[in-house]
Amino acid sequence: MWWPAQRTDRAGPLKELIALARSTVLRARRTRGEQGPAQVEDVEYAARQVRNTYRGGITQEQYQELWRIYSGGPFVNSEIARSLLHNLSLLKYDGGDAWWGIHPIVRPLLEERADEFRKMA
Length: 121
Fold this sequence. Notes:
The chain is built from six helices and two strands; from the N terminus they run ααααββαα. It is mostly helical.
């Protein structure tokens, strides 16, 4: 079974994208057979499944660090940040200057809890 916390190699995001595409196609086939391409609802379903895996694996402390970065705070090399890089909730981008961003599939989890985090600030 796929589990994001096990993704430690640099190819992790690519493998995750392939797994997401595979899940989308499998759902489309289960619901419509061979009757055409995957639909938006198939992609959304697959994304929810991946997001729910992240939801169950991110600790409160990690959520707080993700929110800090999401809110514009700088990347700070810490044990928490490294754990987020390890589980792919936080991604490092190399495009000349390195920068870090919240995994797009994790962003909705932060947005769901935005009021909670704003009150804590």
